[in-house]
Amino acid sequence: MKKTNAARLLDAAGINYELTEYEVDENDLSATNLAKKIGQNIEQIFKTLVLRGDKTGVFVAVVPGDMEVDLKKAAKVSGNKNCAMVLQKELLALTGYIRGGCSPLGMKKAYPIYIHETCQLFDHIFVSAGQRGLQLKINPEELVRITGAAVGDIASLD
Hints:
With 158 residues, the protein is an alpha+beta fold. Helices cover 25% and strands 31% of the residues.
């Protein structure tokens, strides 16, 4: 299994994690499908979304697979009046990652990161390792620490 930049960052920081491989379905990149493929609870599969605020610019929201980012809540937590998802065509240039393989670790630039508060309910969560077909199983406190993320209410149930 090839290590990604995200995994190398965790290695360098001495943070424990596991890499979990799965077969990618290009027609269904949903968190629900991913949870089924790796046999995990959807609440522990966190998706990394990139947004742009009207005041702060680009920031990252990491939310559970059974929830959607709440743009009003995300704007408030991030110090913006409003925000919107960045266009998919902008994702690679901004982060170095593609849709379905965007990790909160190892982006091209250090954007502010906000992780939904439910991460604290679990011993471990799953986030993208930086490529489709590979997830990081990591302690959420360690993820918050290494990314410098803020934890808050940024999502609503799907």
